[in-house]
Design goal:
By secondary structure, the chain is mainly alpha-helical. It has 7 helices and 4 strands. It has helices at 2-9, 54-57, 72-87, 98-111, 118-132, 150-166, 174-191; strands at 11-16, 19-24, 115-116, 171-172. The protein has a two-stranded antiparallel ribbon. A two-stranded parallel ribbon has the order 3-4. Helix 5 packs antiparallel against helix 6 (150-166). The longest helix has 18 residues, at 174-191.
Amino acid sequence: SALHEGMAQQQITISKANIQATLRCETTVLAAANPKLGRFDPYQPIATQINMPPALINRFDLIFPIRDLPGKELDSKIASHVLELQYNPELGESEIPRGLLRKYISYARRKTFPVLEKGCMDEIRDFYVSLRNTGSFGEEQAVKPIPINARQLESLVRLAEASARVRLSKKATRQDGKRAIRILKYCLHQVGIDPETGEIDI
């Protein structure tokens, strides 16, 4: 419930030991969790295996399910890599020094505030409108499922801005919009597919 309040209203209410306070929490939320049964069942929709209420799941911009599927070739590569790191820890060092990466991220957050260009806005709007108006029940066009809602539109804007910010650019271009759409579509195809119709249904 605290997580839901924080993501929905950007504030957290604390009531403890006669202290009642409301704190602002305008920040990014990065969450990691295990599926209900410890691992994903490949024969069930992923969305049903996430033990969170839909109203809370819907507030995350992106969801990346990580499946542990056994395979001799991949398992051999993973085992070899882990064992090599145990023998030679220097192989695990990043090509970009950790301190430099932290400074880069800090600089980008403090100094770069991208604005969407017209091309980027057109790309996002066209995708949103086309996806909103896909699919219908039967021959009647009056009743339609809602494959995407305004939260995903806001997610696209944030992702496009983030794409520009990584480049330290003050403008989010059409390419940033396309990149944001590509990432969101990937996530929707992972967790937002209706198993009965095969269509995107948020």
